[in-house]
Structure formats: structure tokens, C-alpha cells
Structures
1.
Amino acid sequence: MKTYGLLGKNIDYSFSRGYFSEKFLKENLACEYVNFDIPKIDQILSTFENSSVHGLNVTIPYKEQIIPLLDDLHETARNIGAVNVIKLTDGGKKIGYNSDYHGFKNSLTPLLNSKVEKALILGTGGASKAIAYALESLGIAYTFISRSPKKDQLTYQQLTKNIITAHKLIINCTPIGTHPNIENAPDIPYEYITQEHILYDLIYNPTETSFLKKGKANGATVSNGLQMLILQAEKAWEIWNS
């Protein structure tokens, strides 16, 4: 039996385990999917040595931390600077890929309109790097919003009516609003959101976060991260079996 799994911390909620377990059952595949829930990244080394493990997904907080432990990176993952898929080859090599980029770009594209020229990315973690890379490929300028901003980034307190009006796409890459803290939402001035805006939340649990509800109340187009997760999962499966 081939083993695949998710590498992360505090990942009982995992979408991936449920998705792949159902896939393996439906397609009658001799595979299993397990969670590798570890407190420190170096504890994954023994898993790499397990010959039954053929591929891993990577989630918070290890998408960047995992890179030094890998043998090689696919070009996209190298450009993004974050990994969410690892392929373990028959020769024992550990190669990092990024399918978040694929999942986000292909789930966002059907929502776009000609007025979307600029985006705000809320959060600066590993996932946000893939989002930025996808926006670049779509020709959409972006600005990162952070509680601890670096150069060319903004704080939440700096968001004005003019900034919100100019950025018709707002993407939440933070965990704010995830179950069970579903009443929470990123601290942006929602009163300036209009029907010309698109609000995209990488969170999928709950289905409609407070962030999305606030945007929807002002007429914005909204989307959660479920379709992105499905697309990135199928891309991971393609990578593992290529």
C-alpha cells in the first residue's frame, strides 16, 4: 500500500485527509492518507526514510521551513519560495512543488472582470506567496497587508477609502475567521466594499466566513477556498504520479 499524507501542525481539521481518503475509496486505489502532525519540522526526517511514503502535502506552518530539507525544487516552487507538495522519488529524492498557485489561479479566473487591476493580499505567510505569484501571472498588481509590514507593505490601519476603491480584489490569506472563531474577520474598512469588488477567502471552514459575509452584504462577489483546495489536491495527485 502506498502512503500519502499531510505535513503540518495542529491539523486535525485537514481537508486533504478527507478528500484523498474518499478519492482512494471511490477509485479503489491501494493507498492511504495520513496526517503527520508534528510540533517541529525536523521530526519529518523519519517519514522521508519510510519507503511506503510516496508523497506529502505541506501546510501551516511548514511551507517555507521545509525547503532546506528537500533535495530539489520545481521551478514554480523556487520562484514562489514556498512548497505545499513533496514528491518522493524511487531514487529517494525529495522534490518540492507548489500546487497552491495552480489551485488559486484556476479558481479565481472565472470570477474576474475587466475592472480588477489591483489586489490586496491580507497576510504574508507561505500561502500568500503563491497568491502573489498567481496574480503576477494574471497581470494584477498587488499590495500585501500585514500587522508587521515590511517595505512596500501596508498595515490594516492604513487602509483608506481610496485604497479599497482602487483595489477591486481582496484576498484573505490569514487564518482569521476559521472555525471555531467564526465571528472574527480581518480588520479592513468593509463600508467601502462595493458590487465591483471580489472578496476571496482561502478559508473553507466555515463555508462563508465573516469576511465573505461582510463583502456579500455590500454586493461584492465572494468565494471561499474550497475550489482552490480541490484543484490543488488534484494537481498534487498528478505530480505524485508523473
2.
Amino acid sequence: MKNKIKELNEEIWGESPLTFYFSFQGVFNRLQFFGAVLTINLFFRIIYAQEILFLTLLSALLVFYAMLAVIQKRSRDLKIKGTLFILIFSIAYLTNFYINYIEKEKIFSHNYLKNTFGTILILYVLICLFLIFMPGSKEKDLSLMSPLLKHPKIYTIACLAIAFIVFYTIHTLG
């Protein structure tokens, strides 16, 4: 019984939870993707509830990076590179973070921003539903990788820099 639990644990988590969430190697089936998204978002909500800005920002960065890995692994299970999913997730995540945790409701005074965010959010939800419900391919191609994520740390820093510039501009113009 103990061996079966250990085998199940290794099948779900791999070597460790850190490689499960932060490694860009391997594949995720639908259940692993769904579980990872729930766990990562629950982690963020618990940290955010502490209302400590530094911890919120740090956890948001960790969540962003982990979700990139999760989406890449699930895309690989579907035998696609996932570049479009990565781009839409990045825009939706950074915009959602800015609106909900930085600007609160001030941004919704701008109709064009409200409409743009609504469209991005709808695309993101559709992609998540696709990734959750679409069955994986029988033959996995572990070499598939979005060109954006060949260097995930550089991509993360670039996204944050671009988001900072855009949101700072919106904040100063608004």
C-alpha cells in the first residue's frame, strides 16, 4: 500500500513539487494541468490575503513563471508549441494583476481599456477551457517548445518590463 501511494505521488508530482511547477520539461495531461492551475492560484490567493505588498509581488512573479511552465507542458501534450497560448496568458495575467491589485477600479473609467481587457479575458478563458478539456495526443513530442520560452527567465523579465512601461504610461495619462 505504501509503495502504491509513493508511485501515485511520483506520477502526479514527478520528482518534487518544485520540478512539477517550475520545470519546462515534460508534459501535463488534463488532470495535471487543472490541478496545477488550481494549486498555483490558491497559493497566490493565500499570499495575497496577507496584504503584504512585497509578498504579493513576489508570489505574482512566481505564479506567472509557474503558469508559463504549466501551459508549455500542457501544450506539448497536445503536440503544439503553444506560442499563442503563452502570449494570451501573459497579456491576460499581467493586465489582470494590474487592474485587480494595483489600480483596482480606476482603469474601468476608460472604455477602450475596459473593452480590450474584456476581450483578452474571454480569449484567456477559452484557452483555459481548451487546455482542460482537449484530450492529449497519444504520441508526445517532448522537443516541442514555444520560441518565446527558449529562455523563460528572459521572457518573464521582458514581459514585466513591457507591462511596467505600458501600465506606467496608462497610469500617468489617466
3.
Amino acid sequence: MRLAQRYKGILDWFRVNVPAPKSELHFDSPFQLLTAVILSAQCTDKRVNMVTPALFEAFPDAATMAAASEEEILSHIKSISYPNSKAAHLKGMAQALIANFGGQVPEDRDAMRTLPGVGLKTANVVASIIYDKPVIAVDTHIFRLAHRLGLSEAKTPDKVSADLEKNIPAKDRPTAHHWFILHGRYICTARNPKCTDCGLKEWCKFYLSK
């Protein structure tokens, strides 16, 4: 099967069967989404959603978080993975937003990556969800899915992201991030993927090689 045919079949299936996917993180502003995505590194969205209501009540914007101590931030995120480093990142991120961007999350992902705790994946998530930028964030689920489906053979998340962006139309990229992450999270799981329940079988390199 040609690569272009595989991409077309998979994207067409998602357009029909999952027309309006959404992020599972809860947020009310670009700042809150950026905070939640930083917290979600090596942590589940479910766990993040458990701690962010109290966190956002205490620190609803960059100004209030920048003014808080790391200890105050830490008290709200202790159940999150790597809480000490993430508390430092959140305070630094908020301070940088105040100092450099008027307290607002910048649209440009390169500018976003100057913020503490913000790498390419985090910047891509926020840029695609908030600003509808034609980028695709690659986490562990999307990395696994891209390889199993045969959409990329790249060895790093950044290079997988580049392969996906090269082959997926710009208008579909913000939505494709959600398609892939949700499919990887609930169907194409790391252990015991639910191949019999998967609508992508006829294009999936992993399934067809069995």
C-alpha cells in the first residue's frame, strides 16, 4: 500500500467517524490550557483534571501565578508526577508571560517555547487547540500510533511530527492531533491494542502484518 493511500484512508475514516474530537483537558483560557499541558507531561489527563480546579481557583491567570511562591503552587499539584520541577516551571512560565508577553500566551510556537517547561509538544498542543495552527503535537500515544499505522518510521517525536505535518493537509492538522491521541489512548493501546474494534484495520501496517 502506498503511503499516500494509507494517509487518505485513515483521514477519511476519522472525518466520517470522529467529526468533532476535543481535548480531554479542562480549561477556560489559553493560560489554563498551557498550565494543564505542562502538568500533563508523563501524567494522565484525568489526574490533571482532578487538581486543576483548585489550582485555577487560586491562580486563574499569569499574574496571580507569577506572584505565588513555588511552595504555594506545589501545594496544589503534589499528586502530579514530578511536582517540584513542574511547580518551578509553572512559576517561571507565568513570570515569563508577564515579563515578555503582557501576561498572554503567544500564538507563535517558537515564542511559546521560550517559556520555562514548554517544549515542542506542549507548544504544538496549545497552538493547535487555541490558535488553530496547522501543527501536530506528538506524545507517546501518537508516536506509537504513527508507527503502528505505518505513517512514520522516524525515531524521535519531533521527526514523527514533521512526517505527519508533511502528509496531512494543514486544515486537518489541529483536528488530527485529537484523532490520533484519542485513538491511541482508547483503541491502539500500548498493551493489548483493540484491533478487532478498530476501524483503521484495512490501512494499518501493524494489523496487516499479523
